[in-house]
Design a protein that fits this description.
The chain is built from five helices and four strands. By secondary structure, the chain is of the alpha+beta class. The chain is elongated.
Length: 132
């Protein structure tokens, strides 16, 4: 499963943090997603990445594939995308998300962290769980 993203639920808000832990494809895919986000098309790109992901560590998130995926989004400015991606504008941003997640002790996705509003009684539940 694609795991370039980790959603954190904080004070009734979803906050997106990148958590590129599944091999060398994760970081470029996260950077490309953020470049597309600059153009307000993140959700479109996320859906395309999810549908086209390959196995971890097999090179599916090559520059050519990431460009191809972004070109499938109506209204995307490919020149802006390529400029953003080629400059690695969001590399440190993606790395900070990884650092944040590991500082919390996260080791994979999904991971649920449940605590009271004052931060006490923290409980970490790694893995997928039914909603109830």
């Amino acid at each position: 499963m694609l795991s370039i993203l980790e959603y954190l639920y904080v004070n009734a808000q979803n906050i997106l943090k990148y958590f590129p832990i599944y091999g060398p494809d994760s970081t470029p895919a996260a950077m490309a997603a953020q470049c597309v986000n600059d153009q307000g098309k993140f959700r479109n790109y996320y859906d395309i990445l999810f549908k086209n992901q390959g196995p971890a560590n097999f090179g599916w998130a090559s520059k050519e594939n990431l460009e191809k995926f972004s070109s499938q989004i109506p209204g995307i400015d490919m020149q802006k995308f390529n400029s953003c991606f080629d400059s690695q504008k969001y590399l440190s941003f993606v790395q900070k998300g990884f650092t944040f997640a590991t500082s919390l002790g996260l080791q994979g996705t999904p991971t649920f962290m449940i605590e009271k509003s004052d931060g006490s009684n923290s409980q970490t539940l790694p893995g997928a769980y039914p909603f109830p």
